[in-house]
Design goal:
five-stranded mixed β-sheet; sequence-specific DNA binding; AraC-type DNA-binding protein; HTH_AraC; alpha+beta; Jelly Rolls; 287 residues; 10 strands; Arc Repressor Mutant, subunit A
Length: 287
C-alpha cells in the first residue's frame, strides 16, 4: 500500500523556510486506512465528513463537531464523506521544532499542578469545537485566502493563539502537549500496541507501520519481547481469550468471533478447532 508523507505530499509551499503551514483540503473520494507519515504535528479541523485515525496507542474518530490534534509519526487514516458527498477540512501543520519552542517559553509549564506529563500516554487527541474555535478556523481560512497574510510569521502567531486558548480552557492539555516532545521507548511501544490492537484485526504489516519500523525490525523486536513470532503469538492469545469467554463467561461463538478479529463465524470455529481439537460448542460442554 502506498504511503503519503504530510505535509510534503500536499503542497510545494512546505519548503525549509516554512515552520507552520496551513492547507484547505477537500475530497469527493472516501479513504480507508491510508498509511500516513506525519513529519509535522497536525491540527485537523473537520468541516464536513468524518475522520478515523489509528496510532500505536489506539483508534479514535471524530465528526465535524470536533477537531483532531495528531502528533507526528505514522498512522492509519480513514475519511468518510458527508451526506452531500464532500469531505472538507482545514489542516494546520507545525514542525516539532516550533512545537518545542512554544513550551520552552511557556511559563505555566514550570509550575503546573496537573499530572506530570511523564505519566501520560502519547496519543491523538480529539477536542470539541466551540465558538472560539469556529472563529479561529474562519480566521485561518481568511489568512489562507490572502497571499500577503499567508506567511510563516502570521501562521506562527495563529498557532500560538490556538495553543494559549486550548491550554487555558483545559489544564490537562499542557502536560499532554509537552509529552509529545518526549521520545517513545521502542519496547514499551511494541507492548502497548500489542495490548491495544490484539483483537482489532490490524495486520502485522500495519502494526510495524504504526511503530515506525520495517516489518523485519518489528518482527525481530517482537520475537525478542514475546519469544514468539507475531502471527503465532496473536493467534494463540486470541484462542486463549476465546476459551475463557466460552467457558468462564458462557458466551456463544457467534457472540465473540467479531470481537476477536474474525470476519465470519466459520473461520473462527475452524481456528478454534485447530487449537483445541473440538468446536467452541463442544468445548463449552466438556468437563
Amino acid at each position: 500500500m502506498a504511503e503519503l508523507i504530510l505535509p510534503k505530499g500536499l503542497s510545494s509551499q512546505t519548503n525549509a523556510e516554512r515552520k507552520v503551514f496551513a492547507f484547505s483540503y477537500e475530497s469527493k473520494k472516501p479513504s480507508i486506512k491510508s498509511r500516513i507519515i506525519l513529519d509535522w504535528h497536525l491540527f485537523s479541523f473537520l468541516l464536513e465528513g468524518e475522520k478515523v485515525v489509528s496510532y500505536a496507542s489506539g483508534t479514535k474518530g471524530i465528526d465535524n463537531t470536533s477537531f483532531f490534534f495528531l502528533p507526528y509519526g505514522n498512522c492509519l487514516m480513514s475519511e468518510k464523506l458527508a451526506q452531500d458527498g464532500q469531505y472538507k477540512s482545514v489542516l494546520l501543520f507545525v514542525t516539532k521544532e516550533v512545537f518545542k519552542d512554544f513550551f520552552n517559553s511557556y511559563p505555566a509549564s514550570k509550575n503546573s499542578n496537573v499530572k506530570s506529563y511523564h505519566q501520560l500516554e502519547v496519543e491523538p487527541r480529539s477536542i470539541k469545537k466551540d465558538d472560539y474555535i469556529d472563529n479561529f478556523i474562519a480566521g485561518l481560512q481568511i489568512v489562507l485566502s490572502n497571499q500577503n497574510l499567508n506567511t510563516d510569521h502570521v501562521m506562527r502567531l495563529k498557532f500560538e493563539e490556538l495553543m494559549m486558548y486550548l491550554i487555558q480552557q483545559d489544564e490537562s492539555l499542557l502536560p499532554y502537549f509537552r509529552s509529545i516532545c518526549e521520545e517513545w521507548d521502542e519496547d514499551a511501544l511494541i507492548r502497548k500496541i500489542v495490548n491495544i490492537h490484539m483483537d482489532s484485526g490490524v495486520t502485522v504489516e500495519e502494526l510495524a507501520f504504526l511503530c515506525n519500523m520495517s516489518i523485519s525490525t518489528f518482527k525481530r523486536k517482537f520475537n525478542k519481547i514475546f519469544n514468539d513470532a507475531p502471527k503465532q503469538w496473536f493467534f494463540k492469545s486470541r484462542m486463549q481469550k476465546a476459551a475463557g469467554l466460552l467457558k468462564q463467561q458462557g458466551l456463544k461463538a457467534s457472540e465473540i468471533y467479531e470481537d476477536l478479529g474474525y470476519e465470519n463465524l466459520s473461520s473462527f470455529v475452524q481456528a478454534f478447532k485447530k487449537v483445541y481439537g473440538v468446536t467452541p460448542k463442544q468445548y463449552q460442554l466438556s468437563e
